[in-house]
Design a protein that fits this description.
Length: 402
């Protein structure tokens, strides 16, 4: 028989949970009504074609004209999209576009993938991570002693408006040539301290099965490489790409770790859930690297629900990234203090499995810095804090600056 104190404590905990539970129920009920009928009808597409990743890529929506044919957008909206997409390339799969409810401009998918006039009005840097000066060979980026990034394409299923590599997107897809790849492989071979290779882009899973397998064969043949990672948004923006044929290839060259980027619970659909579960159940270890994006996921309940739903589809919340100072993305920014406030509300309200590490990427490619509430105990009178990188470099940041 429980004692009175235990019952009282249980009641307090239940009360704490009820508000979130109400939010969760309302969201899940609303999500049942996400419709793709309008997109289906526009393309007059069969289910077989809709479920084909090649059809989805062939039919990417890339222009304001095409958007206007599908949705009832105003002339003003049309002109803004045209203006922005002339500077920053635009493309989205029919599948990902179909997740936008009523083409609502405040919808989290809309904000992530449809050009917005704010992209032209703010500052930011072309290459805040200084990747161009951390490129010792081929298409490699190197920031750490034992691991490298291998960039293999600038192609994506959807060009995110917050992309950190906008400088590489250009006006057309580019697949890295064989000579540059070979130079990259030779560099890795000649540096036995490199044990971990992250394949990214762009999105490497937009490549053909044969191209992906060729890259994996070459990397796995290097005896000193222990871990292969793939950075991709494909499970989010084009889950149809996760085919049995692709999974068979990935399984051959394990261990493969795949980090994706779900930023909002709306992106966890029947299709994306199946893609992740198929990968996980075939030995591909999945992690999520969310980015804090103002007005998209910068509230505690949305963050908690996202991470809990990810665990249900066998994706481990791994990182939350603080927004980078990329050109044309300032409208997504939040302050460090705000990010910490949201992040720390996870603690105690959900399990540790659902709590990723909150990360600030130090500019100039100096590495990741973990952020937490202890940082706020050391704020200077001018509202700055001194952060330290893994190498001991000191970084001064204003905690309220967005």
């Amino acid at each position: 028989m429980a004692n009175k104190e235990s019952i009282q404590r249980s009641g307090i905990l239940t009360d704490k949970a009820l508000s979130f539970l109400s939010f969760k129920r309302e969201f899940l009920e609303k999500s049942k009504y996400f419709q793709s009928n309008k997109i289906h009808n526009y393309f007059n597409v069969s289910d077989n074609d809709w479920n084909s990743w090649k059809w989805q890529l062939r039919n990417q929506i890339k222009t304001a004209e095409k958007l206007k044919e599908i949705f009832d957008i105003t002339q003003h909206e049309f002109e803004q999209i045209v203006k922005v997409s002339k500077k920053f390339r635009f493309a989205i799969t029919p599948y990902y576009l179909s997740l936008i409810q009523n083409f609502n401009k405040s919808d989290p998918i809309y904000l992530q993938c449809i050009p917005q006039i704010n992209e032209l009005y703010y500052g930011g840097k072309i290459d805040p991570m200084n990747e161009s000066n951390n490129n010792p060979a081929g298409t490699i980026t190197r920031r750490y002693p034992d691991r490298v990034i291998l960039n293999v394409t600038n192609s994506c299923a959807a060009f995110c408006r917050h992309c950190q590599r906008r400088r590489n997107i250009g006006e057309k897809d580019i697949y890295i040539n064989e000579a540059s790849l070979e130079e990259s492989f030779e560099y890795i071979k000649s540096h036995p301290e490199i044990r971990d290779v992250l394949i990214t882009g762009g999105d490497p899973l937009t490549l053909s099965d044969s191209c992906i397998e060729n890259i994996l064969i070459k990397i796995r043949s290097i005896e000193t490489v222990e871990i292969i990672r793939i950075g991709t948004r494909i499970p989010v923006t084009l889950p149809q790409r996760i085919t049995s044929e692709l999974i068979t290839i990935l399984k051959k060259y394990g261990p493969i770790y795949m980090n994706t980027q779900f930023n909002h619970p709306s992106e966890i659909t029947e299709e994306s859930s199946k893609a992740c579960l198929d990968l996980a159940e075939n030995g591909i270890v999945l992690g999520n690297q969310m980015v804090f994006l103002k007005n998209i996921n910068t509230d505690y309940y949305t963050l908690q629900l996202l991470n809990q739903l990810l665990l249900k589809i066998k994706v481990r919340p791994y990182y939350i990234f603080h927004p980078k100072d990329v050109i044309g993305t300032k409208h997504f920014s939040i302050s460090i203090a705000e990010g910490i406030r949201i992040y720390e509300q996870l603690r105690g309200n959900t399990s540790g499995l659902a709590i990723p590490t909150y990360i600030l990427n130090a500019e100039q490619g100096l590495g990741k810095i973990a952020l937490n509430k202890d940082i706020l105990k050391n704020v200077n009178p001018d509202e700055t804090v001194i952060l330290e990188t893994w190498e001991g470099n000191k970084i001064i940041k204003n905690i309220w600056e967005e």
